[in-house]
Amino acid sequence: MPKISDEVRSERRQGLIEAAWRCASRQGYHAMTVDDVCIEAGVSKGAFYGYFDSKQHLLLTLLEEDAIEVDDIIADLAERQMEPVERLRAFAQAMVEHASDPARIQVRADLWSAMLTDPQVRERFVDTVRRRRSLLRESIESSFDVGQLHEVPPRALASCLLAVADGLTLHAALDPSAFRWANVRRAIDRMLTSFDGDRAGDHGRTVRPRAIR
Predict the structure, then answer these.
(1) Section 169-198 average pLDDT
(2) How much of the chain, in percent, has pLDDT values that exceed 90?
(3) I want to staple 25 with a disulfide (CB 3.0 to 4.6 A). Which of 100, 102, 110, 175 is the partner?
């Protein structure tokens, strides 16, 4: 039997991952089975277990891929020529966009459930959050240096920004009609503007709520 090249193996593995995301978007991770993923990918169960030891291994892989995508967002923003506060704003908007994906809504909702009972999943998630919080804190502290943000506890603000994305994802999984993602993006932008020390014209002005959600 001819040996499969590393490139082909990588493509087949990625095909299974993408099939898992599609299944998760329709039925959630917990309801999804290995058989469902194999049917969606058009492969046998034997082929699946050639790449993943178990369904839990697949979940950890989905988490890792999701983390890599967010890391890529952070790396891309870090390379752009932009003010620190604008980088924070762009990051928040990108995270909201990322969190609004139906497949990730389902997987992340199931992830929080898995963390309560699976130490391995919890450890992986904690490491990811710590890394992102550290990177965000650096941008926040840079904003203080140039007077773009009022000084607030940088670690706390970083945690708030990360928690917003996770919390919105959970709410979207619970009640998809609870809010509109476009309005969430506007609200996040406004929230960051309220911290912006350079926008003196915004401070002290009453913003009347409109009938949107």
Answers:
(1) 75
(2) 15
(3) 102
Residue 5 per-residue DSSP state: P
Asked if residue 184 and residue 154 are part of one domain, the reply reads yes
Q: Mean pLDDT throughout 13-38?
A: 90
DSSP structure string for the chain: -PPPPHHHHHHHHHHHHHHHHHHHHHH-TTT--HHHHHHHHT--HHHHTTT-SSHHHHHHHHHHHHHHHHHHHHHHHHHS---HHHHHHHHHHHHHHHHT-HHHHHHHHHHHHHHTT-HHHHHHHHHHHHHHHHHHHHHHHHHHHTT-B----HHHHHHHHHHHHHHHHHHHHH-TTS--HHHHHHHHHHHHHTTBTT-GGGTT------S--
Tell me the average pLDDT across 97-123. Answer: 78
Residues 43 and 101 in one domain: no
Q: Are residues 24 and 106 in the same domain?
A: no
> What pLDDT digit, counting tens, does each position of 118-148 carry?
888 888 888 888 888 887 787 777 766 545 5
- Asked if 14 and 98 sit in the same domain, the reply is no
Q: How many domains does the chain have?
A: 2
48: CATH? 1.10.10.60
58, 136: one domain? yes
User: For residue 28, how far is the Cα from the chain centroid?
Assistant: 16
